[in-house]
Every structure is written in C-alpha cells, then in structure tokens.
Design a protein that fits this description.
Belongs to the pyridoxal phosphate-binding protein YggS/PROSC family. Its cofactor is pyridoxal 5'-phosphate. It is built from 9 helices and 8 strands. The protein has one domain: Alpha-Beta Barrel (TIM Barrel). The chain is an alpha/beta fold. The protein has an 8-stranded parallel beta sheet with strand order 7-6-5-4-3-2-1-8. The protein starts with a helix and ends in an 8-residue tail after the last helix. The structure holds pyridoxal-5'-phosphate.
C-alpha cells in the first residue's frame, strides 16, 4: 500500500473510533481530504484508496489540480474550496468547485451566485463562523450568523448547507471540545428554526488532523484532514 492509502485507513479508523466514543453512527461524519500544496498525483493516489472529496485553500492551485486530476481520474470527485475567497477569485470558485466553506460576507455569496454557470448544480455553501475570533479573523461573528445564513439562502444558484469553523489552536481535548461545542450550539439554533431555504442545512464542517476527535464529539459532520493523509506540508503555498 502507498503511504497515502495507509494514512487514509488510519484517519478513517480515528473517525470510526471517535464516532463510537460519541455514540454516533460511523457514517455520520464524512472525510474531506485537504490536498493543498500536494500535487495531482497525491490526489490520484487517494482516489485509488477510495477517497472522493478533496479540499483546496488556494484557488488557482486548486483549479489547476482539478483540471490535471480530471484527466487522470475517471470517477467523479467532489472539490471543496476551504480557503479565503477574494472578490476577484469568486468566478473561479463558481465555475470549478462543488462546495465553498468560507463564505463570510454577503457580497461574496452574491458574486458566487451570479457567476455559477447554469449547467452546474447549485454551489453548496457553508458559512464560516469566527467562533473565538477577534475582528481580524476570517468568519462572521456568531451574533451575525443567522442574518447571513438567511440572506445567502435566498440566492438562486447557491444552497446553504451549514456552518464551518476553524477555531484557534487549543492545548488539549477539553479546550478543543469547548470551542467546537460553541459552533455546534449555533448550528443547532439555526437548524431548530426550520426556516424555508434551509432544508439542506445539514453540515457542520469542523475538525482537522489535530482535533478531529473533539470535533466529532461536539457534532462535526465533516472533518477536513490534510497532514494526517498527505503528510507534512514542506513548502509554503503562494
Ligand atoms: C490546511 C487546512 C486544513 C487541514 O489541516 P491539517 O492540520 O493539515 O489537517 C483544514 N481546514 C482548513 C481550512 C485548512 O486550511
């Protein structure tokens, strides 16, 4: 087995174990393989080991990789944009990705909706929430999240799927759990409203290599794992 296949098996094992510890069904958490800084050949290796969903942070790197892998790899893959989306990059995201996890302003969402090609299904959106951040961090403030979710839900070419968060590093499991639980509470509050346009609100994107157990305990439905699958990132991305 390649290292990537072995790593994937280990990460799937961690997810299964965390689900068991939390009393959750093993298929209630999906795995997003974060392939940023790694080449198309790494993605192809992961697909050979059964992985279908990939996350990219840097839009241009992601678009080039999607094209390269598309030629190399027959089965349909799902591509998630998980990096900051500047206004001049919305068109690339709308045309090439299936999901965007990092929408934190209405203006970005408006552009993504306007630029989403008609022949593609709606772009699947998570609203990024700054659960512990100051004003300089990406993500909408918890108090402003519902208003943004409602506004984005009205845009025709987008589908709001849930919330995403990247909490600051926390030293131990309990501290990680506390942060992820704040995001879970916000998610539950919005879900409980049962509003029109939020029928597809089912995704809580949180947890990475270092804290996926705590995220799953708190209710994550999608963990974003890079290092645990592809290894350490050795060169800085653009
Ligand atoms: C890089 C990145 C990840 C993956 O981080 P690892 O610690 O390598 O698992 C997940 N989410 C986002 C938003 C990232 O930028």
């Amino acid at each position: 087995m390649t290292t990537i296949a072995t790593n994937l098996q280990q990460v799937r094992g961690r997810i299964a174990q965390a689900c068991a510890a939390a009393g959750r069904a093993p298929d209630s958490v999906s795995l997003l393989a974060v392939s940023k800084t790694f080449g198309a050949e790494s993605v192809v290796q992961a697909t050979a080991a059964g992985q279908r969903a990939f996350g990219e942070n840097y839009i241009q790197e992601g678009v080039a990789k999607i094209a390269a892998v598309g030629r190399a790899c027959a089965p349909a893959l799902q591509w998630h944009c998980i990096g900051p989306i500047q206004s001049n990059k919305t068109r690339l995201v709308a045309e090439h990705f299936d999901w965007a996890h990092t929408v934190d302003r209405f203006k970005t969402a408006e552009r993504l909706s306007a630029q989403r090609p008609d022949h593609l299904p709606p772009l699947q959106i998570c609203i990024q929430v700054s659960i512990d951040g100051g004003p300089t961090k990406s993500g909408v403030a918890p108090a402003d999240t519902l208003e943004l979710v409602r506004a984005v839900a009205k845009l025709p070419r987008l589908r709001v799927r849930g919330l995403m968060s990247i909490p600051d590093h926390a030293p131990d499991f309990e501290a990680q759990l506390a942060k992820h639980t704040s995001a879970r509470r916000l998610f539950d509050q919005i879900l409980a409203l049962g509003e029109p346009g939020l029928e597809g609100f089912d995704t809580l994107s949180m947890g990475m290599t270092a804290d996926l157990e705590a995220a799953i305990q708190a209710g994550s439905t999608l963990v974003r794992v890079g290092t645990g699958i592809f290894g350490g990132r050795t060169y800085p991305a653009p």
